[in-house]
Specification:
This protein has five helices and no strands. The protein has 160 residues and is mainly alpha-helical.
Length: 160
């Protein structure tokens, strides 16, 4: 029991830190955010020896930004689902709670961007973020189910 409480606390802290990081990224102006991702795109492309025009780099930058959205929310979905796995509920309720928390956070994040005036809020980003969260939560739920099945099998073998 104590082990579960400590695990839950650590998972909540890690997930909260990720939420804070997402919030900080959202606090950047559109120019600063775009400059950061464009610089990263140029570095990544340069490392693999690909040299593109400014227009092509902008297209890669857009793709990189959408991958970043999906990836951050994949991690958030995984984190929230990990916390939910420490609660003794049915799997479908854990999953729905995890996805709901992530979708609400994505919507509030876009609202924060819109209200701060630093950037535009985008409904499509909420959908992309939610898809990332669903994939992350699904991955953790699947792994959790496999671990539980294995533990039950091992425990059953011990009783024989």
């Amino acid at each position: 029991m104590r082990k579960t409480v400590w695990l839950r606390a650590v998972l909540i802290l890690l997930t909260g830190a990720l939420m804070g990081t997402i919030f900080l990224f959202s606090s950047q102006t559109s120019g600063a955010s775009n400059e950061l991702s464009r610089g990263l795109a140029e570095i990544l492309l340069g490392r693999v020896g690909i040299h593109l025009t400014a227009e092509q780099i902008e297209a890669c930058n857009l793709v990189l930004r959408k991958i970043a959205h999906f990836s951050l929310y994949f991690l958030l979905g995984a984190g929230v689902m990990s916390v939910c796995l420490t609660v003794p509920w049915k799997m479908r309720w854990r999953f729905l709670l995890a996805v709901l928390i992530c979708a609400l956070f994505a919507a509030s994040d876009e609202l924060h961007q819109y209200l701060s005036g630093a950037r535009n809020g985008n409904v499509l980003d909420v959908l992309l973020d939610s898809c990332g969260a669903i994939c992350g939560a699904t991955a953790v739920a699947w792994i959790g189910k496999k671990v539980k099945s294995r533990e039950e099998r091992v425990q059953g073998e011990r009783l024989r």
